[in-house]
Amino acid sequence: MSASANPVAPASGSGYGRGARVLSIGIATTGLVTLAYFALAAHALSDVEYKRISLVWSIMFVVASVIYRPIEQLLSRTIADRRARGHTGGHNLRVALAIQASFALTFLVIALALRDLLQNDLFDGSAALYWVLVVGVLAYAASYFARGFLAGHQRFELYGLLVFLEAVSRVCFALAVVVGIASGQSAVALGMAIAPLMSLLVVPWFFARRDPPADPDAVKETEGGLTMRHGLGFAVAVFAIMLAEQTLLNAAVLTVEGTSDDAVLAGVVFSVLMITRAPLQLFQAVQGSLLPHLAGLQATAGADEFRRAVRITILAIAGFALAVAIGLFAIGPSVVRTIFDIDRDIARGGLALVGLGMGFHLIAGTLNQAALARGQARGAAVAWLLSAAAFVIWMLSPVIDDQLLRTELGYCLATATLSAMLAGVYGVGSTGAPPAPVT
Questions:
Q1: Burial per residue of 181-215, b for 16 or more beta-carbon CB atoms within 10 angstroms, e otherwise
Q2: Which of 91, 49, 10 is CA-nearest to residue 302?
């Protein structure tokens, strides 16, 4: 880069910390509002209707996370990298938009082909729930695109407001049914389709503050921009990562449900693994600010600052996970049985393993963001897929008769293995070589 170049400075450590705090507050508040949505829905609907609402939500959440977060992360990394190099405009959004549109179109084709299965077998013949699922998933294409755009520009206050507005918009529909303004499961479900569209009202606020103009010399060095080949390769790799992560979170419940004679054991397994979901949900806030921060460091600050940011994050996670594991060993069984109304013994050692596994999962997420920031998405995807496949094989093997213990130990081993493999990917990129621009 020429001496006259005046790139936009990457986020400072304090900026990264502030972004993580802002997103943590936004996502934590969003979680509470989402909990209120389901509490109101449970109050307003029958048990059967509430089950259908929960099913629509579960399918929509998994599908949207898997197919749209790749573009969110692609935009976040690309924009942050190019801003750090001085290119504050023309981020080749058309490439990311084309990939996102292709993912959405693929979902639409599959959903239309499977309409009979979804509408009649899963939703008990409800056309309204089917169309809520279809419209909602399509609407999330725009919402996740906006998230990546805002994260790349490090406008974390708008990112947090976006997810909060989405949750508030959704809960209004359940509240309307409770107070009698509307009625029925279709009215409650409609909030899931409308909410991601309402969240986009945040986007115009971004343009109220413009980036400073970039130095022409700095722009020339990155004017190639994002190519379709690179963008699609990155998106497909992150798609595989998201799919593997959902496998780690859900495969145990599905395999236990399919192989156990105990009718309620799958529910117990689900409840125990809920221990991991709240920290992972909050960690999305850290991930949302960590990837653009690391991409900026990779572009301008060099390997030492990059490694320092990763090291500090991992040390914080390790301390948190160790405290959680100790707490679960001390009082976990009674707390889990009380919260989830479980009428059976829960081993404290098994819960501690889940706590440690959660820590390894968060460490893997940090190393994954480091790999994505360095353009090592393919290597990260291989690590995730191998770990997920090994976990499924473990869950289907009879090596441990107690399927709950098999889940707890298997999750800990799978996430530890994943962390080790991602550490290897991360180590390959830990050189002092000058970083290359995103192309």
A1: ebeebbbbbbbbbbbbbbbbebbeeeeeeeeeebb
A2: 10
Ramachandran class of 12: left when φ > 0, alpha when ψ lies in -120 to 50, beta otherwise: beta
Between CA 19 and CA 1 the distance in angstroms is 28
182 three-state secondary structure: coil
Measured distance CA(54)–CA(62) in Å, rounded: 12
The string of pLDDT tens digits covering residues 169-188 is 999 999 999 998 988 889 99
In the chain, % of residues over pLDDT 90: 40
**Secondary structure of residue 38 in the 3-state scheme:** helix
Sign of CA dihedral 272, 275, 278, 284: negative
Element (H, E) at 295: helix 265-300
**Burial of 14 (C-beta count, 10 Å sphere; 0-12/13-18/19+):** exposed
- Nearest by Cα to 418 from 352, 339, 327, 357: 357
Sign of the CA dihedral with 356 first, then 360, 361, and 362 last:
positive
CA dist., res. 76 & res. 74, Å (int): 6
Q: Per residue in 303-333, pLDDT tens?
A: 788 888 888 889 988 998 899 899 999 998 8
Average of per-residue pLDDT across 52-71: 88
Which pLDDT band, with edges at 50, 70 and 90, does 90 fall under?
A: low
Contacts (Cβ under 8 Å, ≥6 apart) of 94: none
DSSP state of 122: I
* 168-172, long-range: CB < 8 A, 24+ apart: 168/33, 169/194, 169/195, 169/198, 169/199, 170/33, 170/34, 170/37, 170/194, 170/195, 171/33, 171/34, 171/36, 171/37, 171/40
- How is residue 401 annotated by DSSP? S
* Spatial CB neighbours of 12, under 8 Å, sequence gap ≥ 6: none
pLDDT of residue 26: 67
Average pLDDT over every residue of 268-273: 82
Distance of alpha carbon 273 from alpha carbon 268, whole angstroms: 9
Chain centre to alpha carbon of residue 108: 22
Check residue 307 and give its pLDDT. 86
The answer, yes or no, to whether residue 379 has pLDDT greater than 90, is yes
In this structure, is the dihedral angle defined by the CA atoms of residues 260, 261, 267 and 273, taken in order, positive or negative? negative
